[in-house]
Design a protein that fits this description.
There is one protein chain. By secondary structure, this protein is mainly alpha-helical. It has helices spanning about 5-40, 45-80, 85. The chain has one domain. Helix 1 (about 5-40) runs antiparallel to helix 2. The termini are close together.
Length: about 90
Amino acid sequence: MNEDFLMSLARECLLLTLQLAAPMLLFGLVVGVATSILQAVTQIQESSLSFIPKALAVGISFLIFMPWMLQKLMSFTRLLFGDFASLTR
């Protein structure tokens, strides 16, 4: 196991983390912008009005994308465990 392999493995881990977090972050971003526009138009400055819709959007997007996220995680884990013998040398 050399430095190049470790760097590529770390890069794959970071890219997988970004891919798994992106749908929830994007849903939160869209709902947050929509809520901010609504608050600016109506001049309602309630802090719970900005937090609750974003939390619900992130939770719903997690439920929607959970099967895809689990499939990605399982394939990456299978890849790591499949090469476990070569990783420990």
